Amino acid sequence: NDVTAERRLAENLKRQGEFIDAEARYETLLNETVSLQTKYEILRELSVLQLETGQGKKALETIEASHELFASIAPPGTVMLIRMLDAWYFSSRGEIDKGQALIDAARNNMDQFQNDLFEANLAIAEAMFEVFKDPLSDQIDMINTAHQKAQLYVGAGNDYLFNMLRGISYHHRGEHQQAV
After folding, report:
1. Does residue 89 contact residue 67 with C-beta atoms inside 8 Å?
2. Could you tell me if 40 and 5 are in contact, meaning their C-beta atoms sit under 8 angstroms apart?
């Protein structure tokens, strides 16, 4: 359909370094698109473009708009998990303060959940912030605690994720042998 073709065109413009044109294409698509799910996806793509082009504040505003839109079509727990994923993404791109703002938003919504799985996911995101803020901090314990809580609810299905997080943590600490 036309929206898919226009999104691909925006992505191609981005790959070619035509960032202003790509951003304009995404903005136009947002105004022309009716589907909430598609608007949500376009907002996410636009946020990535903005973050990759050094527009951190604008990217945070765009991703928060995507969260608001997503909240109208997804359960609250899913929205919170997306916020945490986005927080980690922003931090991994050097936008730690913006990632922290997303973590804070997730924590503010935590009281509507009385579930250790959500707390475990939040603990994972917070542990990753420690990696980016202070590579020598002991966030491995935080990751291990989150892993134990997650295993109670989802079993071993996410072991690979926790192993990856430990590896990243050790790498940032300069303990490359442990990271492997």
Report:
1. no
2. no
